[in-house]
Amino acid sequence: MRAWILPMLLMLCGSTVAAGLISADSGGAATAVLLVFLVLAGVNSPLVFPRSIGALEAQRRSAVDGRPVVYWRPGCTYCMRLRIRLGRSARRLHWVDIWRDPAGAAAVRAVNDGDETVPTVVVAGRPHTNPDPEWVREQLSSSA
Questions:
Q1: In this structure, are residues 54 and 94 in contact, taking their beta carbons and an 8 Å threshold?
Q2: Neighbours of 59 (CB within 10 A)
Q3: What is the pTM of this model?
Q4: 96: Cα within 13 Å, side-chain hemisphere
Q5: Where's the Glutaredoxin domain (predicted)?
Q6: Residues with Cβ < 8 Å from 92, sequence gap 6 or more?
Q7: Distance CA 120, CA 73 (A)
Q8: Do residues 53 and 100 lie in contact, with contact meaning Cβ atoms separated by under 8 Å?
Q9: Among candidate residues 28, 65, 18, 72, the one with its CA nearest the CA of residue 50
Q10: pLDDT tens, residue by residue, 4-46
């Protein structure tokens, strides 16, 4: 539920502003504002990211197939940048939502001096905090 707070707030704010614009006879502006807020809500929702799995399962799968593990959280702009820049190849990574998985949050804190800094990408057992998306893509192609 925590992952949906920001998207729901964005939809509520957009609806409120649009209702105010409609009452002021600005239907076109209301539509544009509502559309912008809906897009922002969608981009910040968990729907944009591949399905998250638990940290232990992600580590197990990564040990088997060599693919990187990405620790992320909803609403993180750097996580969004990584996800968007990876494009379709993002589905080949193992994604762990640290807000849903306490073990994932603990793993991130362990490698980031107690901070939950995301995205943290673990490649071959080595953590990399907020790496360049192109570097992550190279790591993914070398693990295939």
A1: no
A2: 19
A3: 0.71
A4: 28
A5: 69-126
A6: 67, 140, 144
A7: 10
A8: no
A9: 72
A10: 888 899 999 999 999 999 999 998 999 999 999 998 888 777 7
